[in-house]
């Protein structure tokens, strides 16, 4: 199925020419080696030498212009590197990067005439041509790093696209996560990519924010665990590069997920304690456990300091305290925004000096402010040692990746989507479906003879943001047709209503549906379903109603959680028919679905499930797979119930007049087609000394008649402490698969990681006292059983 490519080039024209001084370096011919100088025996060219020595040798040979080139990238101008047939244009390369370059931004975004299609082979040939030119035509022959987007699969033609990260988090499945991101790593590497700008480990605490879909939910522990598996999928377990691996990028550091008013990049007015305990926790955990090679700073400010100018966060905390050794990359255009948006730097030169001094090693996606660093070094505004440090971090990745020995990619090894990839995405999609209610109608039985599939999302491509054109997409209608095949069950389709007028994630405007038109569709749907035994109703949002609001006028955040358009009227009219409704809610963030819940026999929260969406849905509806997803983010009762996250402080959520203060559906919640019993937890030791650890165990039994999965969740509360603590904090989870009547034992450790807090002096410590240890299948108290554990 063909659909719009994800290409941001249309909006670049609007961004080009924004306020500030364009400090792009003057075009000069690259300098040849000095007379009598030979580089053939240079230390940096000798692979047998220690990398540290190779970097020092190379930096010692570089001019200021060559150094600055390594901390910049090319995006917009890369179109000048190729002709209409994608052949390489060397003349433009001389003009654009005479001294080399640090990164090539998203080389997969090749654009040619409509009659000329692109392919993965074109991408490889393009990147190889750039590397050949850099090696043979710049003075020092330094290859480039190529970076790509891979939020939910490589964003490139015919690559594999699975569900948005919020759906990956819903699986609570570490192994599956790693397999997914390893798939993207292989495909990216096969097409010449070295770095991916993924995963997002922002903790999402405001459902109004349009980037919730990109996150792993509201809990820092879950984001850390699933995010770590994404990094390991990309990079592997060790510190060296192996074939099929790429360098990951954690983003966005920090506080991005609770912006003021839910507006993207708005200030994060949060305390240092909350910043470190919640928003920085996934970064700290993954830095310590996963050797991630890149971290991206966030657009927003934290307590008055833009993250791209926050030396305390990026240098003191990240590098000096946590020991991070990798590179810090800018978010796109964020360096110039220190001048143009935040107004903390007088001009782009000042912004560049401020950013690199604060720990930003390279400016992405293009050469804007950082070329002015040449002048800054020459006039003494910037200490050259700071520039050298940034250059060394970029060169480290080039040496580690082996680019100086072989910068080229084998054209014969290009990987597209495969049948095995389809099976993996299909499995992940099914595991990411969260069953909220079921009166017994599911799974469908042979009593169902006619199914009506209805709704604005029933026959639509549902990929969400940061998507290109994957190999295919299976709609809900397609998937049900595939499952039924030549079966005698009939299928009726009606659109029913629309979310908004058709459009795309990256283009504007977003156009509302005329109500008169939608009411005609609603009447037609109500007539069409009269002969159905059941209605499968696909509603919610799409990539236009929840998306990254990257510029004024390109909005993606909303002040309401209501479903757009007349979807609730559609629900009302279908309910009047008396036919049972199975609701499927898609989109990038939580919505108010009270009306759907009230009038349906079963409801799933689906978010986005990937290119196999329809097949995943059919597998679950027909009982081929039992649902096992859990909510990675709480679903509020209304926009007025925000914040709704489960791990609140004891004095929060005291109550509302005339309303319930709790979330409609809590974090960690999700039903199955079978039932499970989790025994009361037992301790290996009821009391331990400081520094010692103990175990807590539960027995999980499948007490139903079907096979299924359950996510056993461990929550901790420090009952009395020197600083206030949340009422519950997730500190462990394990997904188990059990046949009917089968039981297993799940064991969690109670140690430093599970019990520590930031004390009054901002030191991580375990305080003596009692801890309530809670184990169950959601964050709700009634779904948990507890035992008291003492540290003395």
Automatic annotation (TrEMBL):
GO molecular function, one term: beta-glucosidase activity
Keyword Hydrolase found: yes
Entry keywords, A to Z: Hydrolase
Family recorded in the similarity comment: Belongs to the glycosyl hydrolase 3 family.
InterPro entries in the record: Cellulose_deg_GH3, Fn3-like, GH, Glyco_hydro_3_C, Glyco_hydro_3_C_sf, Glyco_hydro_3_N, Glyco_hydro_3_N_sf, Ig-like_fold
Single GO BP term: carbohydrate metabolic process
Keyword Hydrolase: yes
A Pfam family reported for this protein in Swiss-Prot or TrEMBL: Glyco_hydro_3_C
Domain of life where this protein originates: Bacteria
Domain Fibronectin type III-like, chain residue ranges per copy: 710-779
Organism of this sequence: Neolewinella agarilytica
Name of the protein described by the UniProt record: Beta-glucosidase
């Amino acid at each position: 199925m063909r659909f719009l490519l994800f290409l941001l080039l249309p909006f670049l024209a609007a961004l080009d020419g924004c306020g500030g001084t364009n400090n792009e370096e003057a075009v000069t011919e690259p300098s040849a080696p000095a007379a009598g100088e030979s580089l053939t025996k240079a230390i940096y060219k000798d692979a047998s030498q220690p990398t540290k020595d190779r970097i020092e040798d190379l930096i010692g040979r570089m001019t200021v212009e060559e150094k600055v080139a390594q901390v910049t990238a090319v995006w917009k101008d890369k179109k000048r590197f190729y002709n209409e047939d994608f052949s390489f244009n060397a003349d433009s390369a001389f003009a654009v990067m005479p001294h080399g370059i640090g990164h090539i931004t998203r080389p997969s975004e090749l654009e040619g005439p409509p009659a000329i299609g692109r392919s993965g082979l074109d991408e490889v040939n393009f990147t190889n041509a750039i590397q050949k030119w850099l090696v043979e035509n710049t003075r020092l022959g330094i290859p480039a790093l190529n970076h790509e987007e891979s939020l939910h699969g490589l964003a490139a033609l015919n690559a594999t696209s699975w569900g948005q990260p919020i759906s990956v988090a819903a699986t609570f499945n570490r192994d599956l996560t790693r397999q997914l991101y390893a798939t993207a790593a292989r495909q990216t590497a096969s097409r010449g990519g070295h770095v991916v700008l993924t995963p997002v480990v922002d903790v999402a605490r405001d459902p109004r924010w349009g980037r919730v879909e990109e996150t792993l939910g509201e809990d820092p522990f879950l984001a850390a665990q699933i995010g770590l598996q994404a990094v390991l999928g990309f990079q592997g377990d060790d510190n060296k590069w192996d074939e099929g691996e790429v360098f990951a990028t954690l983003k966005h550091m920090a506080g991005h997920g609770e912006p003021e008013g839910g507006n993207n990049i708005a200030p994060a007015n949060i305390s240092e304690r909350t910043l470190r305990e919640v928003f920085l926790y996934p970064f700290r955990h993954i830095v310590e456990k996963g050797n991630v090679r890149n971290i991206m700073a966030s657009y927003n400010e934290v307590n008055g300091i833009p993250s791209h100018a926050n030396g305390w966060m990026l240098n003191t905390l990240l590098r000096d305290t946590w020991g991070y050794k990798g590179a810090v990359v800018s978010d796109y255009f964020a360096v110039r925004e220190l001048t143009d948006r935040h107004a903390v730097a007088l001009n782009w030169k000042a912004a560049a000096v401020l950013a690199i001094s604060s720990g930003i090693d390279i400016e992405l996606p293009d050469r804007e402010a950082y070329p002015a660093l040449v002048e800054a070094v020459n006039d003494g505004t910037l200490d050259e040692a700071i520039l050298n440090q940034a250059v060394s971090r970029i060169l480290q990745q080039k040496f580690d990746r082996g680019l100086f020995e072989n910068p080229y990619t084998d054209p014969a090894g290009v990987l597209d989507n495969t049948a095995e990839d389809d099976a993996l995405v299909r499995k992940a999609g099914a595991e990411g479906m969260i069953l909220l209610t079921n009166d017994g109608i599911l799974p469908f039985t042979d009593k169902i003879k006619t199914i009506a599939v209805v709704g604005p999302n029933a026959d639509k491509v549902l990929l969400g943001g940061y998507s290109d054109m994957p190999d295919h997409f299976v709609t809900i209608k397609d998937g049900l047709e595939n499952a039924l095949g030549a079966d005698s069950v009939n299928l009726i389709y009606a659109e029913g209503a629309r979310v908004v007028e058709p459009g795309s994630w990256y283009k504007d405007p977003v156009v509302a549906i005329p109500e008169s038109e939608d009411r005609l569709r609603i009447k037609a749907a109500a007539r069409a379903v009269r002969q159905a035994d059941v209605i499968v109703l696909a509603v919610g949002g799409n990539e236009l109603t929840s998306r990254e609001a990257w510029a004024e006028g390109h909005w993606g955040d909303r002040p309401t959680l209501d479903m757009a358009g007349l979807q609730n009227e559609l629900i009302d009219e279908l309910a009047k028919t008396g036919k049972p409704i199975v609701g499927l809610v898609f989109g990038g963030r939580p919505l108010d679905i009270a009306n759907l819940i009230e009038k349906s026999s079963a409801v799933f929260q689906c978010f986005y499930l990937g290119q196999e969406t329809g097949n995943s849905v059919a597998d679950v509806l027909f009982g081929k797979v039992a649902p096992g997803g859990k909510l990675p983010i709480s679903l509020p009762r209304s926009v007025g119930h925000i914040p709704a996250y489960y791990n609140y402080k004891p004095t929060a959520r005291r109550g509302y007049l005339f309303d319930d203060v709790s979330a409609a559906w809590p974090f960690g919640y999700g039903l199955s087609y079978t039932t499970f019993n989790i025994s009361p937890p037992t301790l290996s030791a009821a009391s331990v000394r400081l520094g010692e650890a103990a175990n807590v165990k539960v027995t999980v039994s499948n007490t139903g008649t079907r096979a299924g999965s359950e996510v056993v969740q461990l929550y901790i509360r420090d009952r009395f402490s020197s600083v206030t603590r949340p009422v519950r904090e997730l500190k462990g989870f394990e997904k188990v698969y059990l046949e009917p009547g089968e039981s297993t034992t799940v064991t969690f450790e109670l140690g430093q990681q599970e019990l520590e807090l930031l004390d009054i002096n901002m030191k991580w410590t375990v305080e003596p006292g009692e801890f309530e240890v809670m184990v169950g299948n959601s964050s709700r108290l009634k779904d948990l059983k507890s035992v008291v554990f003492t540290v003395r």
